[in-house]
Structure formats: C-alpha cells, structure tokens
C-alpha cells in the first residue's frame, strides 16, 4: 500500500477557499427471509457455501425469480423518501467479470429505477438540510472473497483467494442522492446525519436490521470541491464501503482536506475510487482504471418488467410508519428529555428500546436510566448492541416496577438485571431464586437495626450527640447485615428514631 | 470502409475475457466486419417512434413469495469446482477491485 | 432388427401400458438400434444404457403394481445435451463444460421423468446451440441419416438425426432461431417451437434468454404433440413462463382438419434469392394441398421480416455474450493456465479462449460490441425496435388468417464443411424461422416431400399466434395425413436405410 505524500489543507482553511459538493450512494441489505432471486436463506454468519443453490451460484441453466417482499420493501423505502414510484420498469444486467460474482453480471437496475426523484430532511446543528434523492433501486449482492497469502491479507499481494457465495444474491437496495451543495463546513456532518437518518428510516420501516458493522448498510461517498464563487464543479472521487457513521464523517472531512491540498498546490484531482482506512482516518487510491468501465447494461431478459399496481402503491403509502425525525421530536416531548439526552439515546440505538419499555409501563426516566446506564455498560462490556442483550423491554419495565413499589432497591435491581442477562429467567424468577427481595418486614428490620446499634456503640453515641452524618456508617452496617436487601432509607429512618434524633 | 478495426476486436476480446492469438484476431476482425456491415441494416427501419421490445411477450409482475427453499449442500455446491479450500471456492489471485 | 423401433411413440406408449411389451424391451430395442447407427451418424454425446434400463424397469414395476401409466410411459426419448441432468453429464457440446455433472435437473428433464419417459442419452448440438449444422459441436459433427455427407441441421442436429434414424421415437430440442424446425425439416421429421414461455427454460443452458424455447421432435405430428404436452406448462422457476394451460395440442393433432381455416402465405418467404427450386416446388404443392383440404389461402406481406435475420444476429449474440460470461473457470468446468502466478483475470481469459469454439467466440464478441456504450442504440437498440415491428407484422397477419405458412428452410441439407467458415451463409439457414423466435409465437415444421434435384427432405413451416400452438398441430396433422395417403406411408420410408 502506498503512503500518500499529499499535503492536507486544514479543514477551516479549505472551507474558506472551496465549496464541497457531496453525493452519497448507500447500499442497504434487505432483511428478507430468502434471497433476491432464489429461496436460499439470508442468515448472517452461516458456514461458507451453506446458503447456496443453482440460482445464486449462477450454475448453467438456472434462472432468477424476483422476491415479492424485496420489491415491496423497495417501494416502501421509495415512498418514505418521498420518491415517485415507476409505473413500469425493468431489471438490467450490469456486465463485468469478477470472481465473487457468480454470473459475471449483476442483476441491477439501470435507467429505469423502481423509485426516483425524492428527498429527505436531516437536521444538523439545529439546521434542517433537504437532501434530494435521485433514485432508489434494487439489485443483488455479491459473494465474499478472502485473500490468502501476502503480507496483509489484503487483496494486493495475495497469493490466491477463496470465495463464499452465501451473500451472493441477497437483496440490496441502492439509494443515490442528488448532488448535495451549499452545506459548506457542515458537509461532513451532513453526510453523517444523512446516513444516520437513512438508518433510522430503514429501522422504522422494518426492512433491514441496518447493522453497519456487518455490512448490511454501507456507503460510498462522492466528494468534489469547487472554488468559492465558482460555478463549475470539480472532479470527484468516490470513497467506497464506509461502514460506520463516524467513518462517513471522517472520510468526507479527509477528502476535503486532501483535495484542497492538491488543488492549492496546482494539482489535479483524478477521478477514481478510494479506500478509507479506519486506523489513520485517511483515504488511499483504489486501482486507477486504465480504461473506463463499460458495463454493457441491457434489460434482463430472464425477468419480466415490474409494473406496480397504483392502488397497491397507495395502500403501502398509507401504511408507512411515522417518519423517524417526527417520532423523535414527539418522544422527546413526551419523555421530557434534553436534546443532548435524546441524541445520546439515538447514538446508542436506545430509542426503540426505551419506547417499548415505556409502553410496557415504566416511567420514561426510569426506562432511560436503565437502558442508558447499567444495560449500556453491560452491552459495552460484551461488545454487543443494546438490542442484542438477552433482555426484553417488558422485563426492564418489570424491574422498574419492582423498584417503584419498594420491593427492590437500585442495587438489587442491578443484580436482577444481571440474573436476567445470565439467562436465569424473568426478573421475578431471578428475585425468587437469588432471594433478592428487599427486607420489608418492620420487625425483622428493627431487630437488625438494634443489633447494629449495639455492635457500634461509639458511632451510635456520636449520632445521639447530634453528629447525624455518622448515621451513614450504621446504615451501611444494616445493609451489610442484610446483604443489601434492606431499604436504605427506611433503615436510616429507624436508626434515627431509635437514637432519639430526627433526620 | 471497414465497420470494425482489428484494435477494436482486440478490445472486445479483452472485455469478453478471451485470450485470442494474433491469428485469431485477424481472422475474427474480417468476419466480424462482414457481419456487422450486414446487421447494421436494422437501423434503416428503427425510427424514433418505435418502442423497443426486450422480451418476446408482454408479461409483467412475476414474483415469488419470500420463502426459504432447500438449496444445495456445500458438498454439492463445491463438487465440480476446479479448486476448493476450507469449503470455499479457491480462485487465482484477484487484481485490484472493480465496482 | 426389432420392429419396435419402427413404431410411433403413441403406439409404444399404448403397448407398454397394456402390457403387450415391457418398457425394458422397448428400451433395449432402441439401445441396440443406437449401437447400430451411432457409428454412422454420431447423434449422441452420451448414451446412458444402464440409467435408461433402470428407468424402464421402474416403469414396468409401476405397471406391475397396477398403476395407471401416462401415454408416453416407457417410451425412449433422446435429450438435447443442453438440459441439465443429475444422472448424466451436461456439456452443451462445449469443451468448457466437459464432464460437468449438474447438481439439479432441468424442469423439462424432471417432467420427462415424471411422465415415465426413458431418457436414453444426451444428443449432440452446435456448441451452446449456436449454429445451424451441428458442426460447431466441440466433440464431433453429427451426420444426416438421409445422406451421411450432409449436415442434419442445427443446433439440435443430434436429436433430429437420432429420431430420423429410428434410434429413438422422440427427442427434445431447443429453438432459438430455428434450431428445432430447421433440423426437423432437413431430416424429414416433425419439430415444434412452442410459444415462448409455454415450455420452461429452467435448467436449459441459456444461449439467448429472450428467444430460447424447448420443444419436441418426433416422426409424426401426434407424437410431437404428446411430447409437447408432457414437458410443457407453467413453471414458477422460470419468470418468463406463461401461467396458462398448455394449448390442446394432442386433441388438435387428432383432429387433423383444416376445412374453413384461413392460411396466409408469407410473400417475403417465397420470393427473393437463396431459395432452392425443389424447396419452392414442394412448398407450392403443400399450399395447393391445403386448399384441396378446404382451407382458404391468401398471400400475406410481412415487410419487416426482411430485417429479422440482422435483428436476430444482434439480439442473440448480445444476450449470449452476457449469458456465457459465467463460464470463467472459477466454480465449475474447465480451468486453464492456473500455475499459481497468473491472476484470476488471466486464467479466465485463457480458459475461455481454450474452452470456447470459434462460433461461440465470434458471437460473444459480436454481442459485446452491440451492447457497448456508443454502439448500443445503433445495434442492440435498433434490433429491439425491429422486434417490435416483426411482432406488429404478425399481429396484423393474424387479424386476417389463422396460420401462416412458408418453407421451413430456403434449402435442403447442405454438405458437411460447406458453410463452416462462412458465417453469413450459415446464418441464412434460419431465414424463415427467426421471425417467430423474435415475436415469441408458435411454429412447427412438418415434412412436405423431397426436392427433386437432391432427393432430400423439404419442410413446411406452419406458424400460429402466441398460445395458438394447437393450430400448428391441427394443420400439420392434416397435411401429414393427406401426404401420407398420397405417398403410401411416411416420408422417412424414402430414406436410404442405414
Ligand atoms: Mg449498485
Ligand atoms: Zn440460492
């Protein structure tokens, strides 16, 4: 891999001299049960070549048949992005040879996308930016190559490669923006906010699990610079396969700094694909193509045209969920949380979970506290997404209820959550099995308080003499004696009563 | 005037992943030139007002339900492969990346 | 020689069902005949004697158990080696697929098995069905049973020769530009191109997806209809398959009546150069015969048909350039030049250069050219417009007539080697058959006599509208019946015995 010797121009300076133009192409793997053109399953992480058939292996004689659910999902995405839905359109073959592509053509769409000409609004720094959507179309994913030998496991310098076709033929929706202009220094954030908004939208529609780290949402970013006051766009580069929101933002920022540096030095931007490196935050050139690609698109003769019924399209439109941005504003108002807290919940993918927990009866503040506190910590430790934790919002709501009714304190509640996560059962079962219910029997608690006072006569004396702060040590003693199962507030009250002082 | 040059035929061979010899290139250049000259006649009647037909019949909306169907076992899938490693198809080294 | 091989498929099916003869006996008789004629005609790429006898035994067992058998159970069939078969290699007559064992059966294969037909082997063809003489097979040319120095037509020449040589009563073929009708015509048998989408393409190794159509070969019209019915019908695995019942082809073949039918003679296909005199003579007589049988004949002009051949030689190569891209040495088939240093791209190019024959390479490059940016509109795009015009010509014609007729081919069987290095001359063999592939409608070829100058068979093409396949059989059977009455038996009786 070559090290770039280009001099970057600091971002602020670059923004004084140039206006960035962005374009984003996002690929979303649909969460259908079967592949786009065959009945193979789509489960992530299956052993190699266990989810293949003659069709997705491109065996001679095999033929594709389009997945109805994938068509429907694409139309729903198009409608949610305010697109027009084609009256009649076709699949096309995109012809190029590549070992991870079984037929050496990709079934895609060319000049007749299923959905076109829409927009989506995203918010950045309190400003609303409208991003035009050029097209939304449907295509199939490729297989996955593993590069063997060579120094780095990268494609370059490898001795040979091995290919797993489990992913070949999984439905991919490609969403292409119109050129995004006029965003100035907000450009990197706008790119990030757009992808985040798409992600939320896909989730709201239930069409994809949008796990960027598993590649089910990936993004190519086109960046070019135009001198301030100019009218002609510069040459663009395309940075491929960005798989986190942070990478999207960093890649745009880096390309702006890099291109500005080159232009400033009197250089010329080469139209090329580039690869982003997480570790350094920089991009490097992909293979520069000696000859322009000629994909020889033509209508896919093995599939017949799609002519979505207008009534059906209107039905799908009527059934669209509330847009994520509207929903976020509504929930924020309902829950009474700050912008900052709402953003934190969004970043942690906690909004759905908190909402479900509230729906199951928990007060919003409690639901947020557990998901963003103890559970977020647990998820972090195990390297899982919050939603992947083996606990349901209903179970979290039950824990909130047990705390509210005084049957658990926070410390015990944490143990209950731990038990649920460890697979010990429902919150009530964990409470039962671990014996975590708070000591609420007044007589029992009074006896323990007496015992603790007796064992700590010196401290008790201090309290009697008015040093009320010292009562904390006695409360601690009660908690220790009950293994944390006492209601600390009630214990403190009892101690003060018995020592003749009022708190 | 020839419809297609030998260089163009060489380019087509490259695009089609056909490692042709110089002799073959010469031979095909002559034949393709003749064929292209003959088939170019289609343009005579292909006026702007005629819609193109990509299919023999005007069928639309043929879909399958989103249901999982049994496919091949990895043994069946890999059985005819020229080279296999770790239940994957082993292929010669791949240069660069496309698309 | 066993008399069984002279029987029709319908008779054999009846005899097996009634227990008059066992399926094993029928199969063995045909395997013996194959062994006898195969050295002369080279119709087969693979003869599956053991598998065939096993299938025959299964039919006999079903009968023994009292199961009701279908009309073709126990009848031998030869299968064009372009359909996948799990129990036999499938090569498309190409070196690039030498020895390939598919892990799945084509829908047509599966339906043959379900109907109890006994698949005796896989027949030779032009590589990937590209050709009109079966000389483009990577393995061997097939010879015409009428004259071993001549071609059996193509691409389904192996199937046609096997049927004409009494090696099998039935065979499958595929018709992309005439690849069933043309070999049927030049070998003196019956061959049908069903309506596109009427028979499934699933498991048929694609040449040109929008044109390829599986269809039957037989020595008579009724047998062809029986086989047509056995493997046709809607297939959810083929998106272009028509979801409608199979037209009543068997009933139509039995009806064999043309009285009151309106028959159009395609003006463009009896005028012009390149037609052999004897071919036109037999064709004219056939038209007169139809009139004598009570049909009304009129001349119909289809002006766009003159552009069918050039349109076809853009559309078919374009689709094939893409369809054949999958033969790349990565997942199955031949791999050449993988010495550990070469890249995948180089190995692909070396393998494809070694694995494909000249006609396949020619068409791949022609198609690649026609689809290239900058040329697309002038070539592929224009060809698609011609396709529209041809469909319109048919539509207008079928407003006036029930069927159209023409000679199936401009000439009788030509000599081996005669056109092999003159692609344009070879392409002319499909002049009359191509329009129906472009428009997707049904057509059949039935024998209508021998050309006097060479004593070789001439075919009459009968063309019907989309899903009007039954009309082809109705008219074909009427012509066949009248001619056999005149000749005192089938035309094949005239064939020099092998
Ligand atoms: Mg794409
Ligand atoms: Zn599959």
From TrEMBL, chain B:
Its EC number is 6.3.5.-. The keyword ATP-binding applies. One of its GO terms (biological process) is glutaminyl-tRNAGln biosynthesis via transamidation. It catalyses: L-glutamyl-tRNA(Gln) + L-glutamine + ATP + H2O = L-glutaminyl-tRNA(Gln) + L-glutamate + ADP + phosphate + H(+); L-aspartyl-tRNA(Asn) + L-glutamine + ATP + H2O = L-asparaginyl-tRNA(Asn) + L-glutamate + ADP + phosphate + 2 H(+). GO terms for molecular function: asparaginyl-tRNA synthase (glutamine-hydrolyzing) activity; ATP binding; glutaminyl-tRNA synthase (glutamine-hydrolyzing) activity; transferase activity. It holds the Pfam family GatC. InterPro entries: Asp/Glu-ADT_sf_sub_c, GatC. Gene3D superfamilies: Glu-tRNAGln amidotransferase C subunit, N-terminal domain. Keywords: ATP-binding, Ligase, Nucleotide-binding, Protein biosynthesis, Transferase. Belongs to the GatC family. Heterotrimer of A, B and C subunits. Allows the formation of correctly charged Asn-tRNA(Asn) or Gln-tRNA(Gln) through the transamidation of misacylated Asp-tRNA(Asn) or Glu-tRNA(Gln) in organisms which lack either or both of asparaginyl-tRNA or glutaminyl-tRNA synthetases. The reaction takes place in the presence of glutamine and ATP through an activated phospho-Asp-tRNA(Asn) or phospho-Glu-tRNA(Gln). This is Aspartyl/glutamyl-tRNA(Asn/Gln) amidotransferase subunit C. It comes from Thermopolyspora flexuosa. The lineage of its organism: Bacteria, Bacillati, Actinomycetota, Actinomycetes, Streptosporangiales. The gene is gatC.
